[in-house]
Specification:
Aminopeptidase, four-stranded antiparallel sheet, globular, alpha+beta, eleven-stranded mixed sheet, 2 domains
């Protein structure tokens, strides 16, 4: 590491300032932006009592200017990560170790692939990784985990001898479609008919509205908070985000936010929240107060495709897991995470698990890809 470079741990992204942080984060992925990460801090969604203690790690040059940054958190549990390591934690603690706290490099509560090594200086990646390793070792942490890294970061982490773990998601990708009907034309006849029937049943008697920018008002966040609480209590037991998060999102990221609501006689009964990237629409949260057949698919998958096409976006990422997305035109794709485990024997055991898991997931994705609804060309 260059002697003119300094590794520093801060107590928040907010303290580092928007201009410096976004110069490294770029504008493509909203989940690593200063606004998103600082909103999590200011709203109390991360911080005291959450098990997510902000600890961003930065690389500074001799003048104190930011060269690189990683959105890092000290974690006292493994909730809200979507890359599951509970089995690793149990094994390490049965062996007499202390798994928590660990260091997590992530966009909290967001299973969204994107950069985790935020580089103002393209050559600063190895220095940042070395800094993360030093933080891990000097503080006696069991491990550091960079989750949902971008694919092009895999080689940087692998070169530093971090373990690369695979996962799977389902993403929709445009093949030059101008309209939803263009997309449907790429599917088999049966699947075209099925999707049209689903959309007709879901939309019957409802009005679907898309809200972004100045159209988003506080009353909409009151409504969506009810939806989010209902879904959160069923999925996680306790919602991760606070009510204040949504208000701040509307204040600071309205132009990068798309809220899709279903109205019955003017009353919202369901909604889906999305963030808008440079070329991707990211579906994040959904909820409802009335059960309507296929409405989840309509708001989260089909309306998301409509919105992406209208904005000239080429991709929709509708969240983690969900094989039911397959028949709706969302293909299986690999996701990646990187893991630094200082203890050699523990690392060896995890490496064996990760290798077997990757083989199984690759086979599963190949099998699933044969089941996609697209017309066969051979």
């Amino acid at each position: 590491m260059s002697e003119t470079r300094t590794i520093q741990i801060s107590d928040s992204v907010t303290a580092l300032g928007k201009a410096q942080w976004d110069a490294c984060a770029g504008a493509d992925n909203p989940f690593v932006s200063f606004d998103f990460l600082s909103i999590l801090e200011e709203s109390g969604s991360v911080g005291p009592g959450t098990g997510w203690t902000p600890a961003p790690v930065t690389v500074l040059d001799v003048t104190g200017d930011l060269l690189a940054a990683a959105p890092a958190y000290l974690k006292s549990h493994s909730q809200g990560e979507y890359v599951f390591d509970h089995g690793w934690a149990d094994a390490w603690e049965r062996a007499g170790g202390r798994y928590y706290p660990k260091l997590q490099i992530a966009a909290p509560f967001s299973p969204v692939p994107g950069p985790r090594l935020l580089l103002c200086d393209p050559t600063a990646g190895p220095a940042l990784i070395a800094g993360l390793e030093a933080v891990t070792q000097q503080n006696g942490l069991s491990s550091t985990h960079a989750t949902f890294i971008s694919e092009d970061e895999c080689e940087t982490f692998r070169a530093a001898d971090w373990l690369i773990r695979q996962g799977s998601q389902f993403h929709w990708t445009s093949d030059g479609y101008a309209t939803f009907d263009d997309f449907l034309a790429s599917l088999s006849s049966r699947h075209r008919k099925d999707i049209r029937k689903e959309r007709a049943k879901a939309q019957a008697g409802l009005e679907i509205v898309h809200l972004t920018g100045p159209d988003l008002r506080e009353e909409h966040w009151d409504i969506f908070w009810r939806f989010y609480q209902d879904t959160g209590s069923r999925k996680w037991g306790q919602p991760y985000l606070t009510r204040a998060f949504f208000s701040l999102l509307g204040e600071r990221m309205a132009d990068r936010t798309l809220l899709i609501l279903a109205l019955r006689d003017g009353r919202p009964i369901a909604g889906a929240l999305n963030l808008i990237g440079a070329d991707t629409l990211y579906g994040r949260y959904w909820g409802c107060v009335e059960d309507v057949p296929f409405l989840h698919f309509e708001l989260c998958y089909y309306q998301a495709i409509d919105a992406a096409l209208a904005r000239g976006l080429t991709r929709v990422e509708a969240g983690a897991q969900g094989e039911h997305k397959l028949t709706r035109g969302y293909r299986p794709v690999p996701t990646y995470s990187a893991h630094y485990i200082p203890n050699a024997s523990f690392r060896s055991a995890v490496a064996e698990f990760v290798e077997r898991e990757a083989e199984a997931l690759a086979s599963q994705r190949a099998w699933l890809d044969d089941l996609t609804p697209f017309r066969k060309t051979d």
